[in-house]
Amino acid sequence: MKYISLMGATGSIGTQTLDIINEHPQDFKLVAMTAGRNIDLARKIIRDFQPELVSLSEKSFADTLKAEFPAITFTYGHDGLIEVAVYPKSEILVNAVLGSVGLQPTLQAIEGKKTIAIANKETLVTAGHLVMEAAKRNGVKLLPVDSEHSAIFQSLQGEREKNIERLILTASGGSFRDRSRKELETVTVEEALNHPNWSMGAKITIDSATMMNKGLEVIEAHWLFGMDYSKIDVLLHKESIIHSMVEFHDSSVIAQLGTPDMRVPIQFALTYPDRLPLPSANRLNLAEIGRLHFAKMDFERFRCLQFAYEAGKAGGTMPAVLNAANEAAVAAFLDGKITFLQIEDFIERALSSHDNISNPSLDQIQETDLETRKYVNSLLKA
Ligand code: MN
Description:
Elements: E1 2-7, H1 12-23, E2 28-34, H2 39-49, E3 53-56, H3 59-68, E4 73-76, H4 77-85, E5 92-95, H5 103-111, E6 115-118, H6 121-138, E7 142-144, H7 147-155, E8 164-171, H8 181-184, H9 189-192, H10 202-210, H11 212-224, E9 232-236, E10 242-248, E11 253-257, H12 263-271, H13 286-289, E12 295-296, H14 303-314, H15 318-334, H16 340-352, H17 362-381
Parallel strand pairs: 1-2, 1-5, 2-3, 3-4, 5-6, 6-7, 8-9
Antiparallel strand pairs: 8-10, 9-12, 10-11
This protein binds manganese (II) ion.
């Protein structure tokens, strides 16, 4: 039995993690969780899973639920996230919160020697150098939950990192893969939210449409697998059947395939190095699919991917600027305040106006995050 802490229980990855726990009651137990503002779903999860510790985004939510579940410990806010992350009984932290709030709890959980199943992109994107150093120092495993990194991780089982020629991340192309830049000028929020292959939260669905999601994944892959940016490629593959690949020095390529179902990489992170059945998953039927398609990535069509490579190579606080500017711009787009292509403009302006700080501390990263959001908001007002 593995005891699990889950940050971001009510989100897309969170609820699918709960599906996995539910499918294997002999193997996993949820002991601590965080939820944001979706109190109805939080209530249902608490009733179904009976965790020992629950953190909500606000005190009023914690008070409300404490009255309904007196035997459970409730807490709230950023301190609550950390309490859940370091909960003594848990062995694994599944970090599925959205945004840079996921960083500090992850670092604390690493110091607490927890295994980390990482779905929170911002942690590695903004502070990869701190996270990897802490993980190494504490002998802690960072297990990828994202389908691409899980695919690379699975392709590397039994292999040595020194033999890698390059990593090839596949990209579905998102909601607008077949549209020209001209057509992108007038796309709506509803169209952007309609992803062809994956069912995900709103922010990541927009990030898939701008290709920023793949950009963030390139930076994550750089840290997770210690790979230079010149050795990380992105390939358009619209079916999302090959989840990513590794090419070795001898020209051999190993890939991981499957139907698009996030529960598979989530479960692998929880069972690693073992595997468990997942009866409700659809098995891959290549004869039925017949053909798979691939295309070269167009960096002019998808400018956010270019920005991500540049920010990643520059290092320092640049990836934190990239991430914060993107979060603020995507929020403005979802609120109907800016157009789809203005997301790119805002990110580009934030990056070019920032003075990079190399090897930043956690405080400097958080400061940069705040400053960048302020900057993007000032652009919104202008
Ligand atoms: Mn992904």
